[in-house]
Here is the input.
Amino acid sequence: ITGTLSVLLAPLLSSAPFFGGIQVLFTNPPKVDVDFRGIGNVADMPGIYTTVRRLIDDAIARAMVSPNRIAHQIGADPQVDLARLRNPPPEGVLSIRVIKAASLEGKDVAIVSNKTSDPYVQVKVGGEFWKTPTIMKTCNPVWEKDNVHEFVVFSSEQGVQIDVFDWDRIGADDPLGSINNYTVRDFIALSGKGPQPWRLEARTDRDDPPPDDARLFLEVAWLWLVHPLKGKELPG
Here is the structure.
């Protein structure tokens, strides 16, 4: 597992122990690389490996990826609210609308026509993920309904991971391309600017790269709920 584990000591108190609680979390999902040995090598097969990795990612996200966290109160100061430590207030709401994709790779063999795919889009922000409906038999899908989702954001430094998959009736879904290494802050900068094309790339070294002209079109909106305070936190 590779990632940044954050340990937060808050709120500040005016007397010992000087911190009211401790929180342990990943702001962004850690990268998980699993290497199976012995008979478990069968799980290293591309389709099975992707499924196992997604299950592990989801388990970690539910436990320790923001807003989820391990939180404990330090001492017995009545000003410290353990429920608030475990459930901090959000910074804002990120709305992502998936409009269409273009030039996706065809993964499904057709007898009398070119290869096609059955694409859907999965978006993950912190510990929350959402996916669009599946559009059948096309490499240029257009989403017209159930294609908008609002993510409650607890830090603008949270990562945004967007993956396009080809739905398969049997076996693991095939990756068609991803939008990697962006944060909520990057998406806030595009709020209100209308539909934007995003170049798709392979999510991992194990995945085949998508066509050079593969694109996903998104529209982003942002609503601030809490403006972060600047300066040091004052004791209560």
Summary: The longest strand covers residues 92-102.
